Amino acid sequence: MPANLTPEFLEAQEEYRKAETIPEKLAALERMLATIPKHKGTEKMQADIKRRIAKLKEEAERQRRSKTSRYDPFAVERHGAGQVVVVGPPNAGKSALVAALTGAPLEVADYPFTTQEPEPAMMPYEDIQVQLVDTPPVVDEIEGPLAALIRSADGLLIVLDLSTDEVLDQAETVFGGLERRRIRPVPVDGDARDEAGVAFRRAILVGNKADAPDAEVRWSLLLDSYGHRATPLAVSSRTRAGVEELRRLIFRLLHVIRVYAKPPGQKPDLDKPFILPEGSTVLDLAEEVHRDWVRRLKMARVWGSAEFGGQAVARNYPLKDKDIVELHV
Ligand SMILES: Nc1nc2c(ncn2[C@@H]2O[C@H](COP(=O)(O)OP(=O)(O)OP(=O)(O)O)[C@@H](O)[C@H]2O)c(=O)[nH]1
Ligand SMILES: [Mg+2]
Q: Quick one: 256-328 is in which CATH superfamily?
């Protein structure tokens, strides 16, 4: 039986033949179905179009699901004593600085957009490690995935480039971009908190390339405008000037303490400290060592911050960085 196909239908069919993507194919098929003459002679064709539409929709759904479950480079698994995200404009030396602090073999190049995905690297600090996350450059707005990464981190390094006259504009881009994402940097001694949708995060304002000509002038301009919004430090990843000071400052930013547990009558385990938030007590340490120990803790002795070594202290005794604690259960 002749199908008596209309010009509209033939056009849609041609569209379908040329379509490359699933949405294009689906649109063409829908148009074919809408324009095909509805009579007995086209029944088989109608069924065929419907079958193709159903198959494509299934395929689209499968792709959508596999995309959402795909590896997300901005979801960086946390390791070590804390996670600090490194952000800044293109070519500021973010990767060079992270490499100087961690020894990681990151790609450093004399052109922008070298780093394309977040790259975690471990920074040794005395007997512990802090995770730094190098990121792609901020040029305009801070993209959603980067904002999410910063929000979930313990702090950030805002790295700016003291070798360029654009440094003030670049600073405005980064600070303004953070503000629009409701992330507000505070100095390292400030209070990290989430309040009314705003994430307050401790931050270090790093002026990199301090070795460059006129870097000093630019640094003082930068300090005038932004020095109060994050703890400032000028460094050079090239000459390593200021790099060790930055390492200590990053540890300070975390507001954590290291505590060494010591079984009664034995030497303390100095290799692997417990990392606790600043202000933690003997009881917090006990809980960290073993959940049961909170209940079973009888007494504790402290070497370090206590007035004399091995002093017996109360359960709510506030511990200090590098204390050695003997827990008696
Ligand atoms: N003079 C000087 N140059 C530096 C310093 N640190 C980095 N550079 C140079 O700056 C350029 C950019 O360094 P990168 O580390 O790739 O910069 P980046 O911020 O990671 O750049 P993107 O990944 O593109 O965002 C390279 O040519 C580095 O050698 C420094 O302290 N002093
Ligand atoms: Mg880089």
A: Beta-grasp domain (3.10.20.30)
